[in-house]
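Tutorial, part two.
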Amino acid sequence: MGEHGFRRSLQGRVVLRVDEEEKLLLAALVHQILELVTPDGPPPGRDVDPLAAMVGIDPYARRPDDPALRRLFPDAYADDEDAAAEFRRFTERSLRDTKVAHANTVLETLRRSGTKVVLSDGDAQAWLGTLNDLRLTLASRIGLDEENHEAFYDLPEEHPFFALFHLYDWFTFLQETLVHALSGLLSEPLDAAD
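Running the prediction step on this input gives:
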């Protein structure tokens, strides 16, 4: 995976250099995140209340069974199931819509880019959100948490989670360099053409 991460160019643009394989991999995984976070329709035989839909209330929102979705859409109240369910009803649709919009922005920037991905500051915010969604989903899928994080560095190459952990690590690196580029901490020129 690329070693350079995001940088802010001399012209003030946020830039990431990726090779074609990295670009295809990013796009494929963002498509998967998009499928994961896209809101479900109402249950069969149920209609959507137009007023509820207009203001973003989802009367059918439930705590997800999928551990990855539970990381992406955690309960707001750990001690109160009723309050958590009510909060979810009023917020989950908006959260899902935001994640969908972020993922679509990432896909659009990848589509319009070659091996140099150039982001506006607005695009960069969408990338931050989607990179975080990718990280949380991968961590959930492989059982990664703060307590066992260091052990994953010692996985042998033949371990089924070896590649997924290194993807997680790459997304973490990309997210960190993007934060630094936005804050001005990484602002060295990539080359004279940037």
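The beta strands are 6-8, 14-17, 116-119. In part three we will examine how such features are distributed along the chain.
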